[in-house]
Amino acid sequence: MKKVKDGLPATAQHGPPLHAVPVQMLKVSELVLHGQANRVPRMQKEERQAFIEDVKARGVQDAVVVQKPNIILDGRHRWEAAQERGDSTIPARVVDLDELGQLNVLYGQALLRRNQTDDQRAVVAAYWCDVQVKLSKQERAQKGGKAKQSKDSSANAADAEQQTHPEKNSANAADAKQRTQRADEKASSLYGVPLRKVRTAQQLVKEGRSLANQVLAGELKLGQAKRQLKGQAESTGKPKPGKKGGITLALTKPFDAEGLAKRLFKVLGKMQAHELEDALRAERVSE
Q1: CB-count burial class (<10 Å; 0-12, 13-18, 19+) for 111
Q2: pLDDT value at residue 75
Q3: pLDDT tens column, 141-194
Q4: How many CB atoms lie within 10 A of CB 31?
Q5: pTM score, whole prediction
Q6: What percent of the chain has pLDDT over 90?
Q7: Are 92 and 65 in contact (CB under 8 A)?
Q8: Lowest mean pLDDT among 16-20, 34-38, 74-78
């Protein structure tokens, strides 16, 4: 696993590193949970009770992370325990991030929690992967805009850098490889989630969101949810998850089969059109 700074791996940072954000005291009664906090699995009943007892005895020891002005990104259980303890304030690190940055913190911190099963962490990782893809698109768009303004100067600077510091070439290549690494592979590498589980969870999040949420709630195992998704697809006649559907034609009476085949040629591709044309000719002869 990569080096972690206060929860988030160094390569997963968006905005200032959390350890650099000063701690301040916020009013417990004024804080609210982020709208996607329900996608983070809760502690089991016994574990939660033990945690609350610890907070009652020692207070909240680890600052929660709050999006300015009062939205909790990380620290739901600490906040709830502080409420039960009767605390009026709670230590917090306040950040000011865009929506993608907030989700990056929310899911990234959640992936480090030890109170989750591998299946639950895989679903959280799938949501985190979706955020990483969007962050990459955002970054490329921003760089693209800047590149239009400074294309020539950047090229000259790069050439000069390469000539004066050739030893940096290999490091730059490694950085580029890391940036282009698939989000699911990155989640597996950074957070130790089995890659096959991450990819199964991504399929669930895309095609069976309610099943994914049942895995988060501990009501289903990942394998069970995958089988249910497959069963739903078969019962509705939809293509199996991860498979592309085909086209089936039913000819009820003779008509211009060759003309139809030619029209379909543009859509189906040369080989498929030729196969269809032969089949339609055979159909016409048999009739």
Answers
A1: buried
A2: 94
A3: 888 776 666 555 555 555 555 555 555 455 555 544 454 458 999 989 888 889
A4: 20
A5: 0.64
A6: 45
A7: yes
A8: 16-20
Token output for 228: 């249910």
Residue 101, token pair as written in the block: 């940055």
What was the pLDDT predicted at 5? Answer: 43
Q: Over 70: is that where the pLDDT of 15 sits?
A: no
Classify domain 4-110 at the CATH topology level.
Answer: 3.90.1530
- Cα 255–258–259 angle (5° rounding)? 80
| Nearest-angstrom CA–CA distance, 38 and 36 | 5
Dihedral pair phi/psi, residue 218, rounded to 5°:
80, 15
Two tokens, residue 181:
């690494």
Close Cβ partners of 16 (under 8 Å, ≥ 6 residues apart): 95
Place of tokens 């189906």: 268
What the block records as the tokens of 9 is: 């791996």
Closest by CA to 193, choosing from 268, 113, 133, is 113
Which residues 6+ apart lie within 8 Å of 67 measured at CB? 34, 73, 94, 95, 96, 97, 102
Which helix H or strand E contains 27, and what residues bound it?
A: strand 23-27
